[in-house]
Amino acid sequence: MAIPHYRGVHFSGDTPEKPKITKALLLRILSYFRPYWKLLIVMLAAIVVTSALGVVSPLLTKDIIDIALPNRDIRLLVYYILLTFGTLVVLNLVTVGQSYLNTLISKRIIRDLRSEMFSHMQDMSLKFFSNVKAGEINSRINNDIGGIESIFSGTLIQIVQGVFIFATTTATLFYTNWMLALISLLTLPLFLAPTRKVGKTRWKIAGETQSKLAELTTLITETLNVSGTLLIKLFTREKDKSREFEKINEEVTQLGIREAVVGRWFFMTLQTFVALGPMLIYLFGGLILIKYQTVTIGGIVMFVTLLGRLYGPVNTFANIHVDVVRSMALFERIFQYFDLKSEISEKPDAVDVRGIKGFIRFEGVGFSYNEKSAVLSDITFEIVPGQMAAFVGPSGAGKTTITYLVPRLYDVTEGAVLIDGTDVRDMTLTSLRGQIGMVTQDTYLFNASIRENLLLAKPDATEEELVSACRTANIHDFIAALPDGYDTAVGDRGIKLSGGEKQRISIARTLLKNPGIVIFDEATSSLDSNSESLIQQAVEPLLKSRTSLVIAHRLSTIVSADVIFVVKDGRIAERGSHHELLQAGGVYKELYDKQFGAMYEAAD
Ligand SMILES: Nc1ncnc2c1ncn2[C@@H]1O[C@H](COP(=O)(O)OP(=O)(O)OP(=O)(O)O)[C@@H](O)[C@H]1O
């Protein structure tokens, strides 16, 4: 079976290729507007109104110069001025509404994209998170989705607005004087010439900036947390990390400066042409006026004013080319993530299995994390309901991996894992995982209160249930003695608690969940005997009357197991009870002698 490879996906560090603007991509982007079509129509209407009203004021200026002033008509002059003022007031009011709608729509689309990304990421498998860099996802959600906000709030609206302004303005120009209108339009191609070159350069720099920003985010995420800081402090690597940060930070700054400078030259060129336009109008308009009298002075002034409006959209179109390409690249990066399929997916006809008995069967199971080497091969065993199975074996033998296959954190590459006779791949993920409790060695707690961490297992648990689970897990007295009791914040990853306390909270959490199957990874780190016996007492009721898979390191746990599976090199090397296995004198005996023999000799 081909294993999907996330490393194959282009992540931030990749050199950006210029994206292809395809119809499919555009349609996909536009689909995000669909829920807001009513607001869009209102906004479009507002754009039409503002574009049309925009030409009214220059037209009135023409009449002031050509009619009111030569006729010395003060009433008409005041009338035109009031009309101009009124038009501008309406225009500005509509513009405010338009920009409000614009912000509303774009912010909501960004919200939708972020939520979609978050829930999509939650569907991704452990394999995905094992392969992706810590800051990568952060960067996609913040930098990339944040980066496209401008295309929604600015670029797309500017395109639409530009089209309307261009249409209304050119129509007015041609209506007034076709010859002068033609001259005005002829100056426009001069704009577009430098655009392409600048666009390409800016695109390249923008791509580099985005990937450097992702590097920066990764560095921050990896370094500035409890584990990262601990590592850096212990190895006294603060200066190196600061230097690394400064280097990338400087690169980002340089890129930013380059991008801005490229833009500046570009704008300077545009500004020069903008200044050239009115001069040409005065020159040719003046010539037409002097020679043919087909244009009036007011007409020429109006042309100059309208030309400013015409350059506006052209300027926008010129920049849009750059912005659109940049945004398309961001969209591609976002959609690339949306298109990643989790290899652990539910079949459409998956069954909802409730109240499982807990009969577990591994049937010729093979598994590998990657194509290179198999971690598990030909694993076959059965655990009957209520039985406690201990998995023992050397480090790296594959014990943890076996337990991961039961709740489908990974899928087998060969064979099958069955619960009560049903392949786990045929069950709904909610019903499967809802009935399996896992207490790992390294307990992860969210940076929240103890209560919130416990409620993760059962959000509607009553106070009595919480206390009862914690009493059973031998942690209630400890929690109750804390100044804030159950509302005590545990810190990042539960840093404020000891390893033993965290594991007992994890046991209480699993007790609250009350699953049919329990997976317990006993701590390898040597806890003091008091802490160890507290855990021992806590875990007993959890394992009692449930089917359990225990990765066992302590002799007492191993001895009390109903069945022991000895895992070696990804295979079940031996199986049986403690005494049977000792008598067999194989791998188990060897392990026992090495791990516990010396301990007992020393104790004698
Ligand atoms: N996410 C992963 N990607 C690739 N290889 C992995 C991954 N997790 C574990 N492995 C490899 O799979 C093998 C089995 O690991 P596993 O954690 O199942 O061993 P274990 O018997 O539980 O060891 P220990 O007792 O030390 O925890 C090891 O060689 C390990 O390097």
UniProtKB/TrEMBL annotation:
Q: Where is the ABC transmembrane type-1 domain?
A: 41-326
Q: Name one Pfam family in it.
A: ABC_membrane
Cross-referenced Gene3D superfamilies = ABC transporter type 1, transmembrane domain (1.20.1560.10), P-loop containing nucleotide triphosphate hydrolases (3.40.50.300)
Indicate the principal place this protein occupies in or around the cell: membrane
Q: Where in the cell is it found?
A: Cell membrane
Query: Any stretches that span the bilayer, and where are they?
Result: 36-57, 77-101, 147-167, 173-193, 265-284, 290-311
InterPro entries noted in UniProt? AAA+_ATPase (IPR003593), ABC1_TM_dom (IPR011527), ABC1_TM_sf (IPR036640), ABC_transporter-like_ATP-bd (IPR003439), ABC_transporter-like_CS (IPR017871), P-loop_NTPase (IPR027417), Type_1_exporter (IPR039421)
In the bilayer, the protein is annotated as: Multi-pass membrane protein
Record's GO cellular component, any one? plasma membrane
Gene Ontology molecular functions: ABC-type oligopeptide transporter activity; ATP binding; ATP hydrolysis activity
The ABC transporter domain is annotated at 360-594
Mitochondrion found in the keyword field: no
Which keywords does this chain's UniProt record carry? Answer: ATP-binding, Membrane, Nucleotide-binding, Transmembrane, Transmembrane helix, Transport
- Fetch the PROSITE patterns from UniProt: ABC_TM1F (PS50929), ABC_TRANSPORTER_1 (PS00211), ABC_TRANSPORTER_2 (PS50893)
This chain's protein is named ATP-binding cassette, subfamily B
Species of origin: Sporobacter termitidis DSM 10068
